[in-house]
Structures are given as structure tokens and as C-alpha cells.
Sequence to fold (683 residues):
Amino acid sequence: MQWACISFPQLALDDVLRQRSDGVAPLVLFEGAGSRARVCAANAAARHHGLHAGQSLTAARALYPRVNAVEHDAAAVERCHDFLAAWAYRYSSQVCRTFPGVLLLEVRASFRLFGGWPALQAELRRDLVALGFEHRIAAAPHPHAAMVLAGARDGCAIEDAAHLLDALGTLPVGRSGLDASCVESLQRMGLRRLRQLFVLPRAELGRRIGAQALLHLDRLRGAATHALEFYRPPDVFDRRIELPFNTASHESLLFPLRRLLRDFSAFLAGRDGGAQRFSLAFEHERGAPTGVRIGLLAPERDPELLFAIARARLERTRLPEPVCGLRLVSDELPAFTPTRRDLFDTRPQQAVTWEALRERLRARLGEQAVHGLALHPDHRPERAWRTHAGTDAPRASSVSRITNEPLPPRPTWLLARPIPLRERVKRILAGPERIESGWWDGADMRRDYYVIETASHQRAWAFRPAGDDGPFMLQGWFA
Amino acid sequence: MSAILQPLIENGRLWRGQGTAPRHDALPTGFDALDGVLPGGGWPHAALSEILFPADGVGEMRLLLPALATLSREGRPVVLVAPPYLPFPAAWIAAGVDLRFLQIVQAGEHDAMWAAEQCLRSAACAAVLCWPRQADTATLRRLQLAAETGQTMGFLLRPSAATVQASMAAVRIGIETGPTRLRVLKCRGGNPPAQAVALASLAA
Fold:
């Protein structure tokens, strides 16, 4: 096993920054309310002005009055972490997001696909830069070692146990992931580097620092394993962006929209799926959100394509009020079929099977929308057919029974229920043909059927109740 | 013959003013007189064919049924998208259609165009029939492109009033009544014949 650790040193800050188009303006996150509000993170521009984590918000405002202050939202950070796990899932099937601000990926199994660690690492970094996340990446044979190395040496990759021990040995105890009190007591003992700890007799060291810290050291070296809980991607994408300002202009909605669709696309790529339908909701301060439903001909996940479609739809949508939030929901995530074709396949590349097509039609038009027809052995036209939902073929016996009888010609089209024949009758071509049936099931019928040519040369199949000379009722067309 | 021109002529996108059009792969309509005047010798594959008829029951389906029967017996679905009436199974069986491969899609006017496009594009169907009532040129163009990409035969059945509307369809045939005659209004790959085609078997 080879574990890659991606650590996000400023996840909460990045989560806020990437939703804003003015990412370079000074911005701080704060926790707490009123006078107890404290800065918990500051972006580079804010740090340049002397703002830093731990300051009170009042002090920060005094140093730089125009600073953007955003309240820290732990739930949003969790959602962001989930999103990153979904993104990482495309590079490895074993992704662990248990530890805060950190993702662990088993990468050895992915080397063949991505072309080794250097290529994979480059790909991870490229994605994270595009998504807008500060990151540090390290790889090691054990998950805890990877985590410690990611914190200490960005970009470090260690494959074998001997090198790992060397690399860990040079780390100061303060960076080893041990808790603060333990680090302090070790430093008082004059133990500065992990190397010094590793050579100490285990039992004696354990007595000094406790079983928990000893277990941590074992995990670093891989002597003890830790059962990790792996991430499972959800089947629904539901993400919301709170806009930093209310806007009614379509132009200023494009940036958050593009960001949202990029996340969506990253999520889709992670589960190797595409989206066929999704809905956007533009939330207003008052009133119901304006919804835009977007349906596609085929599952897609290309962010530019999704953005182009969503943008086209947005431009045609009238927003009754300024928008304060944006939400994207998609629960219909079919498998994505990349365009590829068999060398000898003469069918076009977007070909789908009839079954897949039927599902797609039913998804939009309703469960009953697609059906086949079968003959039913009954003389009454209303009962001479049955619809059937799909592949179940009509029974051959019933077909042969009725087709073997020499019946007069039947019309191509049948009206679901007869209507009075409005067209003027020019002449009667055939008939009457008496159809009398159904006395046993309550739908008794005695009719004389005629083939009629109307004044406009249509050929109709119409009937009169037996023994009646009244107007014709139209039942079908010889189309 | 130039290497550039030859494929264009074979595809029927370019044709010469005189001489016989090259006979290539098309589905015979089942009516010899009509096959004789259509450039490919029948309904074109991977394209739209348009039937314009003045009223229900003048032979618009009898014109198509032989071709549909052939296609359904090949074992690929023939799809009717939002047909105006219910197909009467006895008549379709009598015409030789294998009912197992006849599929009906129920849809409203707008959804019907979407469904027809999906069916044409999917390449899962042998033929798609639809009855657009007020389709604009853009919609028809989409259908034609879908038929080309999906390599599927599309049949549009439209009222005669639509004759004046420009159409992307490869073949347009108007049905005239009393006596029943077919007027080929357009056929890609050749000049439409000046004379209407009388079809006794269609009128019968």
C-alpha cells in the first residue's frame, strides 16, 4: 500500500475565497460574536496588513477597516471536505476523510492508470489549483506517516520502510502529530527529533509518554495499523452557494454558476457518471426560489458544456427579484458513456440500445408513455387490442386464432372512442358487417360496420347500431 | 470523375442535370411506380421523409406500411411518436408488420418533438414516425440532423398546409385525392418528376 496524504492548511478560508470573485481583497474568518469575536484565519492580503489568526476582530478592524469579515461556518467546511473526498474518489477507490483538513488516498493501485506517482501528484495538484485549494501532498507506505510528512515536507514521497524511518527520524517531535503536552515533556527530556525516540526501549518510553502516544509512534512506523473508514460517494449532488451580495444581474451570477458547475463536474468525474438532468434554484430574500430545470440529450460532465447550457437557460430566465443564493440539485446521475466506438461497429457513436432509449423516454414522459401493442382475440374493436409495457411479446396462439378467420379489412387507425362522423358521406364502399358480441360481460354490442368514402375522399370505418338508419359513428380510418 | 465530386454524387448531395441518378441503397417503398421516380429507388436511409396529406384516411399509412413491415421484420423497433390515433393491430398484422417491434410513444406536442429527436439520434430504432402539427424550420432541421447522426429513417406526417413551409426533409411527397396520386415535391439526389404518380394500389 502507498498512501498519499493531501492536507488542506486553510480549508475554511479557501472554501470562502473560492466562492468570491474578489479573492485577492483582504478577508478574515472569525468565530464568536460581539466583542469576543476572534479571527481564526486570514488570507494573504489580510496578513500583509498585519492581520493574523488569534486576533480579536475589533483589533483586526482597527488595523485594516475595510477588511471583509466572514463568520466561520463549520458545516460549510464539512461540506467542502465532502466535496474534496468526492473529487479524490476519481483517483482512488480508497479515500479516507476521517481526519479534519486531511484526505488520505491509497494510490498504489492507481499508479498503472495514471502513470506513476509523479504524474499522479502533478494531476492532483493541477486539479486542486483549478478548484482553488491550498494544499500539501506527501506519500508514504503508512497513512499516519503520510499525514505527518505532508505537514512537514510538502511534495515528499517515500516508498520503502528504511527511507521512511530516516525521513521520520529527522522530524522534530513538535511536527510528529503527538499531542502538545507530550511534545512538551519530550522536549524537557531533551528529545528533539523522532530519531531519538525510535531508539529508546519501548516499554520505558511507554511508561513516560503513555500508551496513546506509543500507539501513535507505532502507527507512524507501520508497526500498528489503523482501520480507516473509507469514503462512499453519495448518489445525489446537492450544493448551495450563498452569494456575498444580492444581485439581479445575470452577468454577476455567472461566476458562482461556473464555480458550482465545476464542482458538479468534478463530482461526476469522481463517480464516473454524467448528469442528464439537474435543476438550478436561484434563491431570493423573499418568495419562492426561481427554478431552472435543465435536461440533456445524453449524460454529460464536461464543465464548459454544462456551463454553456446553464448560461443559455439562465439568460432566458427572468429573475423577479435579486438573487441571494444559488443551489444545484441533481439526483439523476446515469452512467457516463465516453464517446468511443468499436473498430467494426458501423452504428453511429452516440448509439444506445432500445432499452436505454426507452428508459430515457419514460424518465421524461412518464412510466406509461412507451408501450407496445398486441392483438387481443375479441371482435369488438375497443377490445381487440392490448397495450403491453415492453418486451413481452404477444402470444402467438391468440394471434393465429384471430388472423386465421377471414375477416373483412380493418382500418389502420382506430379511434379510442367512436365519435359522430362529421364528414359528408359520398358512398358506401363495403358493409354492413355485423359485429355482435359481448352479451356475457356487460359490454353488449350490436353494430353494423361500413367502409365509407367521404366527400373529401377519406376512407372511414363507421358504424350504426344494428337496425338503425341514423347517423354514422366514426370508429377508424383506412389511412 | 474527380475524387471530390464522386462521393458527393454517391451521397446524393450533388446531382447532374441529365442522365440517370445512381441507384444506391434505399428502402423500397413497396410501390414500383414510386420507387421508379425516387432517386435512390425508395425511402432514403438516414434521412427524413415527409408525407403531406390533406385529411385523415387518404392512404397516408398505406403508403408507409410496406416499408414499415419490412423494417419491423428485420427486428428493430419501429416507433410511432404521438400517433393521432391508435394503430389497429389486426390491420397492421395484415399489412405484414411484426407487432413485437412496433412501439408507441405517448407525448404532448412539445415533448413529441423531443422524443422523436431522441429516437432518431439514438440509432436504436429502424424508423421513427411523427406527426408534427406546428413544427418550425429549426425543429425540422434538428430532426433531420438527428436522423443523419443516428442513421435512422424518419417519417414526418404533416397536413398539406405545411407544403409551403421550407423543409429539410430529403423526400417530400404530397398526397392528392380524387383520384389518389402522389406528387413528389422534393427528392434529394434528383429533380422531382413533373408528373404526379398515380398509385392504383394505394387507392384500393
Observations:
- The CA atoms of residues 26 and 136 of chain B lie 27 Å apart.
- The domain at 38-203 of chain B is CATH 3.40.50.300 (Rossmann fold).
